[in-house]
Specification:
By secondary structure, the protein is an all-alpha fold. The protein has helices spanning 2-6, 9-18, 31-37, 39-50, 60-64, 70-76, 85-95, 112-125, 133-154, 161-168, 177-190, 192-207, 215-226, 233-246, 251-265, 271-275, 279-285, 287-301; strands at residues 54-57, 78-81. 65% of the residues lie in helices and 3% in strands. Strands 1-2 form a two-stranded parallel sheet. The two termini are 24 Å apart.
Length: 306
Amino acid sequence: MALKKMMKLKRALRLHSSKHPKLALKDVLGDGYLLSRNAMYARTRELALNFGYRFAPAWENYKRASLFELPIILKKKMIPYNDSVPTLIRLVRDHDFDEDMIDVLVNLTSYHFHEAAHGVSDAVLKPVKAKSAREKVLSALLCESYANATESMAVTFVDDEIQQFFLEHNSYIYATPERAYERQQAFVAWGPTALFRILWLSYLFANFLVDDVSTEELESALQFALQKDKITKKDREMGAQLFANAYELNENFRLKTAKLYMRMLGIKGNIRKTLAFDFTHLLTNNREFRQAFDRLTEMTALDLKP
């Protein structure tokens, strides 16, 4: 990213130190800045804390194999973060280091935002007792897709290159100006709740490894997300673009993640066959799942403002 090449280490630390709200993780680069500037990032922090989660420096097993640590995160209600700031401060103090950030050979990225979203979704969806293997699969992939959608929603509030830089170092997503503009247009047209619903559904389709979303599937998804029968041409265009963004999530990563979830659920067999069922019908016609979807969407996105 261009800004990473232009931004010097000392400037990054100054910007990091310029914002220090109450809930900030002072050792996570840009955390306070994002809490002050990004409504979705801040909302996720508040929700995670309200559900009893706490934040701590990443432990060794998480650093080595983060995907396998999700059950531990949920059981212990402990969100790991990458505490890179003390190392960066030492580089400046001891070596007067002030290179472009792209040349700073320190692991800067922290995935606590994604993990916190997992904690929030688990708190709401866990009480929905799965009565079949398919319901177990749907619950697991709803949680993963929720975490993806939360990060994607945060892009809506990126209004400068500094926030873009910090968000990309605190999530899995690329917060390009083009993506921010697309979400901002949808935010204005649909409002925050409907936008989040469609983002969540777009990642659900991607995580279920649906190869090609048909016109009919997109239409149904938009009707469910926007809660209206008549979908306009503009709705379709914006919805198709947001779905396309979700499908940029690396397919191999999605496949490996899905396999891991099935292993944790004790479900064996061909992964694509396991996922080949009408999950949208199950979501929309199972009262408990639909209520959890609606409740989680409301608490996540209601009244978010740029």
